[in-house]
Amino acid sequence: METDSATNNHPVQQPKQQHDPDRHPDGIMSFRTSGFSQRLQSFMNQPMDPELEHRFAAALMEMSFYAPVQSGRRHASAKQPRPAFTLSVAVTTYLADGYKYIPVFTDLAKMQRFMAGSPNMDPFRSFEFTSSELMEEAEQYNLKGILINPGEQSFPLTLEYWDYIHQVAPVVASQNQDEDFKYQLINPTPTKLEETLSQSLRHIRKAKAAWLIKLKPNNDNSYQYTVLVDYRGKPNDFEVKVSRKLAMAAHRYLPYGADIIVGRLEGRLGDEVKHNVDAFYKRTGWLSS
């Protein structure tokens, strides 16, 4: 799909977190992102299935996306006596309907591929926004909505559909995510991978144990390396303090082209893994308290 790019020159609200693509390996994929991608593809394959729509709507409301943003400065004027820092979201035209959308991405690797094919995207950097924040921006600047993973899945989420799914009684994503996955043991055991992950986990005090398995969505044929961590810290700290460290440590020991999912040990899937799979790492001694 061909796309064009433009900049919305109105200042936007400061996003909650900035991510540096150079420090985020292409192979990392959070448990939440993997689950959302699976639900999105299932819904795109069967858009008339009400159960799939409910699950997709629930996941969408909890999802955050990366969006290309360009920073700038607003000079002082008679109306605005103080200069200010501004952010401008990128805008792309979806050729299938001719409308303008904010391009958004479920992971940085997809965003980097999109930007590499658009020379005028060089000044843009990646910021993370919730789905609600992005839809508010689209509405404020009279755009059609957001375009999820343009060039790959290319799913247009319009403002009209966003309003509609709020009328649907969605299934809570966290209660049903386990049903979308299957896991298996890794044979032979990747000893070097376990060792390097253990070294990183020793520096994460609130990581009590960890399991290494292969995981796949039910509608996919390929399993992906997955680390599930019994983490006793704040959920919001997990991505920054745990998942990135483990993904960076594991990257050199993964098979060529393989991704790794890093998630917390929780839900029914977590219970099954805890009782049926031996942990490769357990914190012991006085540091475990």
Automatic annotation (TrEMBL):
Ranges of Basic and acidic residues composition bias in the record: 17-26
Its recorded name reads: SseB protein N-terminal domain-containing protein
Q: Which domain of life does this protein belong to?
A: Bacteria
Domain SseB protein C-terminal per the UniProt entry, residue ranges: 189-283
> Where does the signal sequence lie?
none
Instruction: Tell me where in this chain the SseB protein N-terminal domain is found.
Output: 48-158
Record field: compositional bias (Polar residues) = 1-16
* Pfam families membership: SseB, SseB_C
